[in-house]
Amino acid sequence: MPISEALRGRTVAVLGGTGPQGRGLARRFAAAGLDVVLGSRDADRAARTAEALPGRVRGATNAEAAAAGDIVVVAVPWDGHAELLTELAPALAGKIVVDCVNPLGFDKQGAYALTVAEGSAAQQAAAILTGSTVVGAFHNVSAVLLEDPDLDTVDTDVLVLGDDRTATDLVQDLAAAIPGVRGIYGGRLRNAHQVEAFTANLISVNRRYKAHAGLRITDV
């Protein structure tokens, strides 16, 4: 579907954009017609990744991407989450920050949710980025499907969590810019933990059934 009027003219930055999730989201946002800045610790790697993607995508450092984006998606590994956001807090002030990080551990039994002192990765982001509006979204979307250039649509819903209605509405629009995806309001940011943790269940489903399972909300 066409991007909403609320999204027109906005630049989306993806921090950690050279990883599978960030790269896949950047691909889909650019294909929808949005301007995308793909951030990385390594600017050259970001530039090479951006060149391989369709649409208006350019590579930059994470700091440059944070400064350039109107909406900034955080898709970095959990281990570096707090450190990066603390460093970039001044550049992210006044912006909508979309956190899609899942704090997960892995052992011989598979994936499991980690305990986060603030409650969730999204709440940690909000605690650090006091000058930003933090929204949680895109936690349960398969990077494999996002990155597949042969798939025109992605069959999934995206739960959007946050405390600011204008921001969650805009991020729902961002999700809906990806054909086949709906952005569904999933509650306040305090409810982000179970959405992040559910990714561990989806990983178990995918391993058992050799699939790329997503989430659909019925009767909405």
Give me the secondary-structure topology:
Blueprint: E1 11-15, H1 20-31, E2 35-40, H2 43-51, E3 57-61, H3 62-68, E4 71-74, H4 81-92, E5 96-99, E6 104-107, E7 110-113, H5 121-128, E8 133-136, H6 143-147, E9 156-160, H7 165-176, E10 181-185, H8 192-209
Parallel strand pairs: 1-2, 1-4, 2-3, 4-5, 5-8, 9-10
Antiparallel strand pairs: 6-7
Write a concise keyword list for the protein shown above:
alpha/beta, 10 strands, 220 residues, 21% strand, Rossmann fold, six-stranded parallel sheet, two-stranded antiparallel ribbon
Can you put this structure into words, describing what you see?
Keywords: Oxidoreductase. The chain is α/β, with parallel strands linked by helices and 220 residues long. The protein has one domain: NAD(P)-binding Rossmann-like Domain (Rossmann fold), CATH 3.40.50.720. The model has no long low-confidence stretch (mean pLDDT 97).
Rg over CA atoms, rounded to whole Å, is 16 Å
Strand content: 15-25%
* Helix/sheet category: alpha/beta
Give the domain tally: 1
The description of the largest β-sheet is: 6 strands, parallel
CATH top level? Alpha Beta
Mean pLDDT: 97
**Which residues form runs of ≥5 with pLDDT under 50?**
none
Distance between the termini: 18 Å
Contiguous helical run count: 8
Total count of strands: 10
Organism: Micromonospora cathayae
Pfam family, one: F420_oxidored
Domain Pyrroline-5-carboxylate reductase catalytic N-terminal: 11-103
Protein name: NADPH-dependent F420 reductase
